[in-house]
């Protein structure tokens, strides 16, 4: 690869050159990261030996804590090594849709939107809100965000599915327990190297007045754009920009991304239908349950990973769930599927 990078004719094809340089940078980062882990492991083992020789408990304790942090970093890099899909390194769109249940589900959808935004910020990713429809009383009916960062799609791709919440409703004067559902759909941003053709004649384009925050101009003109791809039934919408023209361009990008994700899904299911974790997404296909009352538990129904700290999870502490789901997907863990929570 270094020989190719040093070829004076490389930049005759700018797109290919950029792709090669990105791959080279990723390999360099991986190799340098592995070497750094090896050196830190060696250094801390030597520190523990030194501390034990000198009966210095503080040195031993500090080195042991460093090894724990090193283990977490090694686990993270191991997960990133699994992100080898053709779109894993891309930015990603994330759609949130409330289920049946009115205010309850709309509030739950808003909680999920906040959870993924917090997770992305923890990862150092940038988040842009492209479209949002507020609920009648609270929460949201739907929203679409764009998460920008290296491997954003790779990390988030296993989050597509139905998420269930069980809690004592803050909107019920009788303080009864309610179960709410919302769905998440994740699909990668399509870069210029991927050609997705869409016939405009196959699409219906609607304009409408934006809702939510955005300034006086956004809320008083039909600047928002919705595109429906009739052959597949895929619907995308964008209201981020003040300009209808810009929203239309972003909506076309989103549609191409959805069509590309659908093709990736077909390939995955054809290669290994059993191991695919992205089967039909419906209200009967929950991937994770979040129970706040009468006990506290978040459980992934595909991997069995659990957390007894729902507040931490809802504040973006999702890596353990994502890592397990990625390993489950890569390893073809269909046999490890767990029973749905009744």
Automatic annotation (TrEMBL):
<keyword id="KW-0488">Methylation</keyword>
<dbReference type="InterPro" id="IPR000352">
    <property type="entry name" value="Pep_chain_release_fac_I"/>
</dbReference>
<dbReference type="GO" id="GO:0005737">
    <property type="term" value="C:cytoplasm"/>
</dbReference>
<keyword id="KW-0648">Protein biosynthesis</keyword>
<dbReference type="Pfam" id="PF03462">
    <property type="entry name" value="PCRF"/>
</dbReference>
<keyword id="KW-0175">Coiled coil</keyword>
<dbReference type="InterPro" id="IPR045853">
    <property type="entry name" value="Pep_chain_release_fac_I_sf"/>
</dbReference>
<comment type="similarity">
    <text>Belongs to the prokaryotic/mitochondrial release factor family.</text>
</comment>
<feature type="domain" description="Prokaryotic-type class I peptide chain release factors">
    <location>
        <begin position="209"/>
        <end position="225"/>
    </location>
</feature>
<comment type="function">
    <text>Peptide chain release factor 2 directs the termination of translation in response to the peptide chain termination codons UGA and UAA.</text>
</comment>
<dbReference type="InterPro" id="IPR004374">
    <property type="entry name" value="PrfB"/>
</dbReference>
<dbReference type="GO" id="GO:0016149">
    <property type="term" value="F:translation release factor activity, codon specific"/>
</dbReference>
<feature type="coiled-coil region">
    <location>
        <begin position="34"/>
        <end position="80"/>
    </location>
</feature>
<dbReference type="Pfam" id="PF00472">
    <property type="entry name" value="RF-1"/>
</dbReference>
<dbReference type="InterPro" id="IPR005139">
    <property type="entry name" value="PCRF"/>
</dbReference>
<protein>
    <recommendedName>
        <fullName>Peptide chain release factor 2</fullName>
    </recommendedName>
</protein>
<feature type="modified residue" description="N5-methylglutamine">
    <location>
        <position position="216"/>
    </location>
</feature>
<keyword id="KW-0963">Cytoplasm</keyword>
């Amino acid at each position: 690869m270094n020989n190719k990078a040093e070829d004076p004719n490389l930049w005759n094809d700018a797109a290919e050159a950029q792709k090669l340089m990105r791959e080279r940078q990723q390999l360099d980062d991986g190799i340098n990261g592995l070497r750094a882990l090896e050196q830190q492991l060696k250094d801390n083992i030597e520190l523990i030996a030194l501390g034990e020789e000198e009966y210095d408990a503080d040195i031993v304790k500090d080195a042991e804590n460093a090894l724990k942090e090193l283990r977490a970093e090694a686990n993270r890099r191991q997960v990133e090594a699994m992100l080898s899909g053709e779109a894993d390194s891309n930015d990603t769109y994330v759609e949130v849709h409330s289920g049946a249940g009115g205010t309850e589900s709309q509030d739950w959808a808003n909680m999920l939107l906040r959870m993924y935004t917090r997770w992305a910020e923890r990862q150092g990713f940038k988040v842009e809100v492209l479209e949002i429809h507020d609920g009648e009383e609270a929460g949201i009916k739907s929203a679409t965000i764009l998460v920008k960062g290296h491997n954003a799609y790779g990390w988030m791709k296993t989050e597509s599915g139905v998420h269930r919440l069980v809690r004592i409703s803050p909107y019920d004067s009788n303080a009864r327990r309610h179960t709410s559902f919302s769905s998440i759909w994740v699909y990668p941003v399509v870069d210029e190297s991927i050609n997705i053709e869409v016939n405009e004649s196959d699409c219906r384009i609607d304009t409408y007045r934006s809702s939510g925050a955005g300034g006086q101009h956004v809320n008083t003109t039909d600047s928002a754009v919705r595109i429906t791809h009739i052959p597949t039934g895929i619907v995308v919408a964008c209201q981020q920009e003040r300009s209808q023209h810009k929203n239309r361009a972003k909506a076309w990008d989103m549609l191409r991304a959805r069509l590309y994700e659908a093709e990736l899904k077909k390939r995955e299911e054809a290669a290994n239908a059993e191991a695919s974790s992205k089967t039909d997404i419906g209200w009967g296909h929950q991937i994770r349950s979040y129970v706040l009352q009468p006990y506290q538990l978040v459980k992934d129904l595909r991997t069995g990973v659990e957390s007894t700290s729902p507040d931490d999870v809802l504040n973006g502490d999702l890596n353990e769930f994502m890592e397990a789901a990625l390993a489950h997907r890569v390893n073809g863990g269909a046999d490890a599927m767990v029973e749905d929570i009744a």
